[in-house]
Amino acid sequence: MDIQIKTLTGGEAGSVTLADEIFGLEPREDILQRMVRYQLAKRQQGTHQSLGRAEIARTGAKLYKQKGTGRARHGSARAPQFRGGGKAHGPVSRSHAHDLPKKVRALALKHALSAKAKSGGLIVVDDLVSSEGKTKAMLSQFAGLGLTNALIIGGAQLNENFARSARNIPNIDVLPVQGINVYDILRRQTLVLSKAAVEALEERFK
C-alpha cells in the first residue's frame, strides 16, 4: 500500500510503499487482546503483601490453660481469628507475568500496525527534527498535522530537541523504534512513523 509522506510543517515529501505483510493484514482482535493482557500483566508490580501468622511480632505464649476454662482451645495470639494476628491467605509478593510465544507477540505488533493503517490513523513523516526545542512551536506543528492524541515513533536515535519539546504535550508519546509496542499503539488515536522507523520495522520483520 502507498501512503503520502508528510513534513512536520504539513507539506508533502513524496510517498512510500508499505509492506502488505506488515501494514496490510486483517486485524484480529483476539491476538491484540492477548498481547495487551500480556503487557499489562508484565508491568504490574505485584508488591502487595500482608503478614501471615509466622511473620507477626507477637508473643508465642499460650493464651490460657488448655482445660477447665470453659473456653475454646487456643495456642497462639498470632492466629488469624484474633485482632492483631496474621492474615489468612493474604496477598504475597509475586510476578503477575505470564508467557506468550515470541511469534504471537511479533504477529500482534503487525496486526496493531495494520489496524492503524486500515482505520486511517497512520501518518508517515520524513523526519522528526526540531531546531528550536520549544514546546510552543511543536504544538503549532502538531495542530497543522491534526495531532491531538498520538504515538510518535522515530528512528533508533531520537532528535534531542524534538523529544524535549514534545514530552510536555499531553496525550503525545514519543518513542524510538525499538520501544514500539502494541499497547501504546492502541491507546493513542494516531500513529506517527518516521521514514527511519518504517525502514527499521520492515527490516525487523524481513
Automatic annotation (TrEMBL):
Keyword entries, A-Z: Ribonucleoprotein, Ribosomal protein, RNA-binding, rRNA-binding
Location of region: Disordered: 65-97
SUPFAM superfamilies: Ribosomal protein L4 (SSF52166)
Record field: compositional bias (Basic residues): 65-76
Protein's GO biological process: translation
GO CC annotation: ribonucleoprotein complex; ribosome
MF GO annotations: rRNA binding; structural constituent of ribosome
InterPro entries: Ribosomal_uL4, Ribosomal_uL4-like, Ribosomal_uL4_dom_sf
Superkingdom assignment: Bacteria
Family the entry assigns: Belongs to the universal ribosomal protein uL4 family.
Description of how the protein assembles with itself and partners: Part of the 50S ribosomal subunit.
Role noted for this protein: Forms part of the polypeptide exit tunnel. One of the primary rRNA binding proteins, this protein initially binds near the 5'-end of the 23S rRNA. It is important during the early stages of 50S assembly. It makes multiple contacts with different domains of the 23S rRNA in the assembled 50S subunit and ribosome.
Protein name: Large ribosomal subunit protein uL4
Organism: Aureimonas flava
Gene: rplD
